[in-house]
Each structure stands twice: as structure tokens, then as C-alpha cells.
């Protein structure tokens, strides 16, 4: 009887070790962590603001560089912005002002700020000045800088365990991980990318509530 109990304990221990072995903490390899999303829609403009921590310079090389904090503002579905069009945003006692550049690739107007702290509240005020007119917005959003994104990374780690094993070298992993929060139709999703040192990307779309893997692809 004693031998049977010992044998069962060994089997359970082995199963536990086996189940945990491939659960890699992907947060240690984050080169981009976009956890804040704010939006506002008007007759003339659709404004989206992202808050994130990411490496600078932003390279797809499988390594994590120096991490800095950034706010990116994008405008689409809008009347044409003039070259001197500007936006002023305010949050947590901070005021930022910048001009937009048009991105032919995305079809959006974009401006970006390096900041010391990302927004901590769910509302941000913004003023756009364009062609002699002034438009005031309140961007409402989601600050998801808590632990939820780690559950998404854990789901990806389990799903990609075989692929991750191939990236292991001398006890570490030759990769970087990018996480982007997506807010669409009142639902939260996470887009997680694993990038190796050759720039090859394995990407996952994860449900923000159930943390189910919805789709994956190699780029």
C-alpha cells in the first residue's frame, strides 16, 4: 500500500512539472505593451488614443530594447486636415500638444508623444484645431494595465509552447513579444505577437474576457 501511495505521488508530481514546464512568463519579453485605448467619434472626426510602453527604437529583431512610454493619437473618417492642424490633450494634470502627419499606408493622421506617465483615468479631454475651427472632445476609454493582459499572455504561452521551445537558447528565449489591446464593438481583444531574431512573427488574437485563442497566424 505504501509503495502504491509513493508511486501515485511521483506520478502526480511529474504531471505537475510537465504541465508547468512550458508556461513561460511572456511578460518578461514584452517590447510593446499597449494597455490603454480611448476613443471619441464626432460628425467630422474619429479619434483614437493609445497608451503603451514599448521599445525605442521599435525594431522587429527578436530583442527587447530600451522601454519608454508613448501616447499615440490617430484620426480617421475625417475632413482633410491642413498641415498646421494640431491637437491638445489633457490628462492627470498633463497637457500635450502636437501636429499630425498623414500615413498613406494606414490612411490615418497620426501624432505621437513620449511621456513620463500614461493616463490613469477613463476620460481624456482633447481639442483639435484645423482650418480655423476648433473641435473639443472627451475621449472615453479603458485602462487595462492591470493583470488581465497577463492572462492573455499565459493563454498564448500554452498554445505556442512547441514553437517557444524552438526559440530557447542557453536558458533564455531569443524573441520579443508585442501586446496590443483592441476595443471593438464593446468588446476587448488582445493581439499578441511573438517575434524571433529573424523577424518571423507568430500572432494570436485572444478574447479579452474568456482569454480563449480566437485565431493565430504566421507572418
Describe the SSE topology.
Elements: H1 2-21, E1 30-41, E2 46-55, E3 67-76, E4 86-91, E5 94-99, E6 101-103, E7 108-115, E8 123-130, E9 133-143, H2 148-159, H3 161-166, E10 168-169, E11 172-173, E12 175-184, E13 187-196, E14 201-207, E15 213-218
Protein model, in words:
- The chain is an alpha+beta fold and 219 residues long.
- It has 2 domains: 24-28 and 145-218, Nuclear Transport Factor 2, Chain: A; 32-143, Immunoglobulin-like.
- Helices cover 17% and strands 51% of the residues.
- The chain has 3 helices and 15 strands.
- The protein has helices spanning 2-21, 148-159, 161-166; strands spanning 30-41, 46-55, 67-76, 86-91, 94-99, 101-103, 108-115, 123-130, 133-143, 168-169, 172-173, 175-184, 187-196, 201-207, 213-218.
- It is elongated, with a radius of gyration of 21 Å.
- The N and C termini lie far apart (55 Å).
- The model is unreliable at 5-20 (pLDDT under 50).
Q: Given the C-alpha coordinates, what overall shape results? A: elongated
Element string (H = helix, E = strand): HEEEEEEEEEHHEEEEEE
CATH architectural label of the largest domain: Sandwich
| Contiguous runs where pLDDT drops below 50 for at least 5 residues | 5-20
Number of helices: 3
Which sheet architecture does the biggest sheet show? 13 strands, mixed
The CATH first-level class of the largest domain comes to: Mainly Beta
Helix percentage range: 10-25%
User: Percent of residues in beta strands?
Assistant: over 45%
Distance separating the two termini: 55 Å
